[in-house]
């Protein structure tokens, strides 16, 4: 099995693109909540518009599409499917539960990434990382128990967000493998196209109309493509070439904080005590994990030069 060791040194410090990405994804739940269109339609146009926005900038990259092997095409299809599943589940969760609960539970993604990396790549987490995972799970249980006390509807929304976090963790692990051989731009371009196609198939199968929406909805679709996708997910996809998928997934810490504050200001959604306690536990758990990652990075051996050469710029 290949390791998830960092393949190359980034051309710029990862801190700035990480900050931009964190700010951008904080607007995602606000935009989803602002739309009255079905979430599968929002997701489809979000991915389709992003796909179209990328076209003018990828002429050189697209000429290498024929070099993608059959195995990587299958992985790309799987990555697009799980990304569509993530968006469908998580965006739907915002219909049933609060922005705070939905985004805080989505922050469990690093836990799933860590578990997946252990089984798939034999990445063994240290004791501090495992402790962080357990603390984060306690936080998720606190939020779930609080919301089930409010209503079964809120708990159902929590469950959708939880499953959405699992789906995007699978997407991240697949993406890391693909981008050993495929550029981040080409990966994003194809995966987003597959995701849009998955949503289109879903909408046709369910008989959900894909047109006839007012101008306000088209503006929201466009903003979903530009803000959290181009300036969020695409930046994270690019960074996957240089840092571990678990490091990228730690950026979800910013989304529950920023989105919860915006939810309070825009939609008057007050944060409950269970959400505060659960959110603090999840953030504490993920901070413990970050400390474990930092310690591991400081003591790790240099990256395999063959892996570095495999990364396509």
From TrEMBL:
The keyword Transmembrane helix applies. SUPFAM superfamilies: Multidrug resistance efflux transporter EmrE. Keywords: Membrane, Transmembrane, Transmembrane helix. Residues 17-143, 156-289 form the EamA domain. The chain crosses the membrane at residues 12-32, 44-62, 74-93, 99-121, 128-148, 154-174, 186-206, 218-240, 247-267, 273-290. InterPro entries: EamA_dom (IPR000620), EmrE-like (IPR037185). Pfam families: EamA. GO terms for cellular component: membrane. Its main location: membrane. It comes from the Bacteria. It is found in: Endomembrane system. The keyword Signal does not apply. It is a multi-pass membrane protein. Belongs to the EamA transporter family. This is DMT family transporter.
């Amino acid at each position: 099995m290949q390791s998830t060791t960092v393949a190359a040194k980034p051309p710029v410090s990862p801190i700035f693109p990480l900050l931009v990405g964190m700010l951008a994804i904080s607007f995602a739940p606000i935009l989803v909540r602002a739309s009255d269109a079905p979430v599968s339609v929002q997701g489809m146009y979000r991915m389709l518009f992003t796909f179209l926005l990328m076209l003018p900038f990828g002429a050189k990259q697209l000429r290498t599409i024929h070099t993608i092997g059959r195995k990587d095409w299958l992985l790309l299809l799987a990555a697009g499917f799980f990304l569509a599943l993530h968006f469908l589940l998580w965006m739907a969760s915002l219909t049933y539960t609060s922005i705070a609960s939905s985004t805080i539970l989505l922050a469990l993604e690093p836990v799933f990434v860590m578990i997946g990396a252990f089984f798939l790549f034999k990445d063994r987490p240290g004791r501090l990382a495992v402790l962080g995972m357990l603390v984060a799970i306690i936080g998720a249980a606190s939020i779930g128990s609080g919301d089930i006390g409010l209503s079964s509807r809120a708990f159902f929304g929590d469950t959708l967000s939880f499953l959405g976090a699992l789906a995007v963790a699978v997407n991240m692990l697949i993406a890391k493998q693909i981008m050993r051989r495929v550029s981040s731009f080409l990966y994003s371009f194809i995966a987003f196209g597959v995701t849009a196609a998955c949503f289109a198939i879903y909408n046709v199968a369910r008989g959900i109309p894909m047109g006839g929406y007012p101008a306000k909805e088209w503006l929201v679709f466009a903003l979903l493509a530009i803000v959290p996708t181009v300036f969020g997910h695409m930046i994270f996809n690019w960074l996957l070439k240089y840092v571990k998928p678990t490091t990228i997934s730690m950026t979800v810490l910013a989304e529950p904080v920023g989105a919860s504050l915006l939810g309070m200001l825009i939609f008057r959604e007050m944060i409950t005590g269970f959400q505060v306690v659960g959110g603090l536990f999840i953030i504490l758990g993920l901070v413990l994990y970050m400390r474990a990652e930092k310690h591991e990075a400081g003591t790790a051996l240099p990256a395999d030069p063959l892996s570095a050469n495999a990364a396509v710029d």
